[in-house]
Amino acid sequence: MKSAATTMNLQVNPNTQNYDITYHELRFTVDPNNATPYISGVVKTTFTALSNMSTVTFDMATALVVSSVTMNSANLTFSQANYELVINLPTTLSTGNSATVIITYAGSPPQTQGAFTRSTHNGTPVIFTLSEPYGARDWWPCKQDLNDKVNMVDIYITAPSSYVSVANGFEQSVTTVGSNKTTYFKHSYPIPAYLVAIAVTNYQIYNQQGGLGTLMSPYFPIINYLYPESYSSATTATQLGTTPTIINLYESILEPYPFRNEKYGHAQFGWGGGMEHTTVSFMGSFGRDLIAHEMAHQWFGDKITCGTWKDIWLNEGLTEYMAGLVYENLDGAAAFVSWKADKITNITSQTAGYVYLQDSDLTNVNRIFSSRLTYNKGSMVTHMLRWKMGDTAFFQALRNYLADPSLAYGYAVTTNLKSHLENVYGSSLTEFFNDWLYNQGYPSYNIVAQNWGAGQAKITVNQTQSDASVSFFEMPLQIRFTGAGGVIHDVVIDNTSNGQQFVVSVPFTVTGVEFDPNKHIISKNNTVTLGR
Question: Rounded to whole angstroms, how far apart are CA atoms 255 and 37?
Answer without folding.
Answer: 40
